[in-house]
Amino acid sequence: MQASADVNQRIARIAAHLNPPTNNLQMEGSSNLRWENCRAKGGSPGFKVAILGAAGGIGQPLAMLMKMNPLVSLLHLYDVVNTPGVTADISHMDTGAVVRGFLGQQQLEDALTGMDLVIIPAGVPRKPGMTRDDLFNINAGIVRTLCEGISKCCPKATVNLISNPVNSTVPIAAEVFKKAGTYDPRRLLGVTMLDVVRANTFVAEVLGLDPRDVDVPVVGGHAGVTILPLLSQVKPPCSFTQEETEYLTSRIQNGGTEVVEAKAGAGSATLSMAYAAVKFADACLHALRGDAGVIECAFVSSQVTELPFFASRVRLGRNGVEEIYPLGPLNEYERVGLEKAKKELAGSIEKGISFVGK
Ligand SMILES: NC(=O)c1ccc[n+]([C@@H]2O[C@H](COP(=O)([O-])OP(=O)(O)OC[C@H]3O[C@@H](n4cnc5c(N)ncnc54)[C@H](O)[C@@H]3O)[C@@H](O)[C@H]2O)c1
Ligand SMILES: O=C(O)C[C@H](O)C(=O)O
């Protein structure tokens, strides 16, 4: 009798390990916490991260890369479709983070409760011929709902907002948080890292360098002329001909469209974006951990210009954005670009703010 009880217990333990994602998806919020308890004992200390839109083109590779991040102990994958499959798949990776899936609006609060960092790639992507602003009508409402959840369930979380149009979705998020009385401008960051990643790549190609050795500040916003690479401030110090400057500025500003056209209706950048999102999220987690000297470009609440939001280099710390750096000396080409960028940005920011005011 004792032997068969032991065998039964062992089978139950193995079953609990074999079925974590399914159990987990079905049992969130219920009393069946057996699998969770099992994993919690072996869990490593680290940050709790949620991805909203985790089953999408960006969400899936982003989830995979975050599962590989040693700073993450708990990874919540939320979407309105397909999270059971994505969660089951990613949970088999033998890395430290525990993965849980959450499906549909009724599980949003469970997905968000207790999170340190929330990354949002939820929403529709562009097709050829569209601008990012053409996504506003659908994505504005999605971002508003998700941010209402954040206000309620993890108001102190750092938010990395990817959903387009970033120039408007960040102001939307700010307004939602203000309404809820939870707004901390230091913790709301629009992700413009893909512009920096592209700028580093394209500049390195022109200079014949390894892109890992190149650092290009990209300021302004995340759409067309609002994407302003500061080629006069590239590291290592270098100079460009006028022709090179115009080619590089245009290629960086239109990098997203280049991918949208190449994908010919199948969406926009997903893999390079997941890479950029993880690079940025990793910087945020290092800063949250207390590492010094974490400096990245992001679209944030800012006084660098007269606009209420602007992308520029920021120093990240335990509380999110701890210092925003001035733009530094600009050349004439960049000064003209800055004026164009500000003009377009002003309208996009206002559109986001008034959406929540409606
Ligand atoms: N900031 C940037 O640099 C950058 C770069 C690339 C793409 N984007 C933007 O990211 C967004 C996502 O792009 P994608 O290629 O992953 O699109 P996608 O369509 O492949 O994936 C989007 C995911 O969001 C989910 N979703 C929709 N409504 C939701 C809701 N209410 N709650 C949770 N999830 C929801 C969808 O089910 C889908 O799985 C787009 O708006 C795109 O323009 C931004
Ligand atoms: O271009 C897009 O629509 C997606 C994203 O903003 C990008 O820059 O790739």
Automatic annotation (TrEMBL):
<dbReference type="Pfam" id="PF00056">
    <property type="entry name" value="Ldh_1_N"/>
</dbReference>
<dbReference type="InterPro" id="IPR001236">
    <property type="entry name" value="Lactate/malate_DH_N"/>
</dbReference>
<keyword id="KW-0560">Oxidoreductase</keyword>
<feature type="binding site">
    <location>
        <position position="132"/>
    </location>
    <ligand>
        <name>substrate</name>
    </ligand>
</feature>
<dbReference type="GO" id="GO:0030060">
    <property type="term" value="F:L-malate dehydrogenase (NAD+) activity"/>
</dbReference>
<feature type="binding site">
    <location>
        <position position="126"/>
    </location>
    <ligand>
        <name>substrate</name>
    </ligand>
</feature>
<keyword id="KW-0520">NAD</keyword>
<keyword id="KW-0576">Peroxisome</keyword>
<dbReference type="InterPro" id="IPR001557">
    <property type="entry name" value="L-lactate/malate_DH"/>
</dbReference>
<dbReference type="GO" id="GO:0005777">
    <property type="term" value="C:peroxisome"/>
</dbReference>
<feature type="domain" description="Lactate/malate dehydrogenase N-terminal">
    <location>
        <begin position="48"/>
        <end position="190"/>
    </location>
</feature>
<dbReference type="Pfam" id="PF02866">
    <property type="entry name" value="Ldh_1_C"/>
</dbReference>
<feature type="binding site">
    <location>
        <position position="79"/>
    </location>
    <ligand>
        <name>NAD(+)</name>
    </ligand>
</feature>
<protein>
    <recommendedName>
        <fullName>Malate dehydrogenase</fullName>
        <ecNumber>1.1.1.37</ecNumber>
    </recommendedName>
</protein>
<dbReference type="InterPro" id="IPR022383">
    <property type="entry name" value="Lactate/malate_DH_C"/>
</dbReference>
<feature type="binding site">
    <location>
        <position position="198"/>
    </location>
    <ligand>
        <name>substrate</name>
    </ligand>
</feature>
<comment type="subunit">
    <text>Homodimer.</text>
</comment>
<dbReference type="InterPro" id="IPR010097">
    <property type="entry name" value="Malate_DH_type1"/>
</dbReference>
<feature type="binding site">
    <location>
        <position position="273"/>
    </location>
    <ligand>
        <name>NAD(+)</name>
    </ligand>
</feature>
<keyword id="KW-0816">Tricarboxylic acid cycle</keyword>
<dbReference type="GO" id="GO:0006108">
    <property type="term" value="P:malate metabolic process"/>
</dbReference>
<keyword id="KW-0329">Glyoxylate bypass</keyword>
<feature type="domain" description="Lactate/malate dehydrogenase C-terminal">
    <location>
        <begin position="192"/>
        <end position="355"/>
    </location>
</feature>
<feature type="binding site">
    <location>
        <begin position="53"/>
        <end position="59"/>
    </location>
    <ligand>
        <name>NAD(+)</name>
    </ligand>
</feature>
<feature type="active site" description="Proton acceptor">
    <location>
        <position position="222"/>
    </location>
</feature>
<dbReference type="GO" id="GO:0006099">
    <property type="term" value="P:tricarboxylic acid cycle"/>
</dbReference>
<dbReference type="GO" id="GO:0009507">
    <property type="term" value="C:chloroplast"/>
</dbReference>
<dbReference type="InterPro" id="IPR036291">
    <property type="entry name" value="NAD(P)-bd_dom_sf"/>
</dbReference>
<dbReference type="GO" id="GO:0006097">
    <property type="term" value="P:glyoxylate cycle"/>
</dbReference>
<dbReference type="InterPro" id="IPR001252">
    <property type="entry name" value="Malate_DH_AS"/>
</dbReference>
<comment type="similarity">
    <text>Belongs to the LDH/MDH superfamily. MDH type 1 family.</text>
</comment>
<feature type="binding site">
    <location>
        <position position="139"/>
    </location>
    <ligand>
        <name>NAD(+)</name>
    </ligand>
</feature>
<feature type="binding site">
    <location>
        <position position="164"/>
    </location>
    <ligand>
        <name>substrate</name>
    </ligand>
</feature>
<dbReference type="InterPro" id="IPR015955">
    <property type="entry name" value="Lactate_DH/Glyco_Ohase_4_C"/>
</dbReference>
<feature type="binding site">
    <location>
        <begin position="162"/>
        <end position="164"/>
    </location>
    <ligand>
        <name>NAD(+)</name>
    </ligand>
</feature>
